[in-house]
Design a protein that fits this description.
By secondary structure, the chain is an alpha/beta fold. Helices cover about 45% and strands about 15% of the residues. Bound molecules: iron/sulfur cluster. Iron/sulfur cluster binds next to helix 2 and helix 5.
Length: about 220
């Protein structure tokens, strides 16, 4: 993977590095998702946080606002973070693709999963964000993020909740995407939520340790 930054930079001034990347994303035409987007959705939060959350990609609401995780899934993400006393300001949140993937159905655009080629085209930006932020912990939200960041053969139902060691001393875990949680009903909804709540507790323990080590 090419780096967008000179390694000699030393990692300081993360805001500047991210702002430069965001400027590149705003005019990016590396894949066809550029053709139908309203806004690019780069990422938000604390660039100095030890914890980075990575989701799948912008949906309709995110495309309209330019912000990640808005609407019902965003509200649920806030609740998940609040369960361990975190807010969006404590973490950095982004997605594996920065433009909405959609398909026309019955005269209206519906969200779809990004294609492998689109994820690959966009990975240079995720890589750049990760290099700038240098997280200690990554929490992938959903299977596509986990397949991109952790392992291409990742199975979310089988492998979520486990820790994986990534390059650069990063510990990574995946849990269910909030939008997936919201699609569950009855007992499945309760069971899925319980697993997500368990995962965020484990992530928070690592987060606290990283904060303590930083001093
Ligand atoms: S999804 Fe990523 S690679 Fe594709 S156009 Fe948007 S920013 Fe560029």
């Amino acid at each position: 993977m090419d780096s967008l930054f000179d390694a000699a930079d030393g990692g300081e001034n993360r805001e500047e590095r991210l702002a430069e990347l965001a400027r590149q994303v705003a005019v990016c035409t590396r894949c066809d998702l550029a053709l139908s987007r309203t806004n690019t959705v780069f990422g938000t939060g604390d660039p100095y946080s030890p914890l980075m959350l990575i989701g799948e990609g912008p949906g309709e609401n995110e495309d309209a606002t330019g912000l990640p995780f808005v609407g019902r899934a965003g509200k649920l993400l806030d609740d998940i973070l609040a369960a361990v006393d975190l807010t969006r300001r404590d973490v950095y949140i982004t997605n594996i693709v920065k433009c909405r993937a959609a398909v026309e159905e019955g005269g209206r655009m519906k969200n779809r999963q990004p294609r492998t080629s689109e994820i690959k085209a966009c990975n240079i930006y995720l890589q750049g964000q990760t290099e700038a932020i240098k997280p200690k912990i990554i929490l992938c939200l959903g299977g596509p993020a986990a397949k991109t960041v952790i392992d291409k053969d990742f199975r979310i139902t089988k492998d979520r909740g486990k820790w994986y060691d990534l390059e650069g001393g990063i510990k990574a875990m995946a849990t269910f995407h909030p939008a997936y949680v919201l699609r569950q009903r009855g007992e499945d909804l309760q069971n899925t939520k319980r697993l997500v709540w368990k995962d965020i507790q484990a992530v928070y323990a690592e987060y606290q340790q990283a904060i303590e080590e930083r001093g």
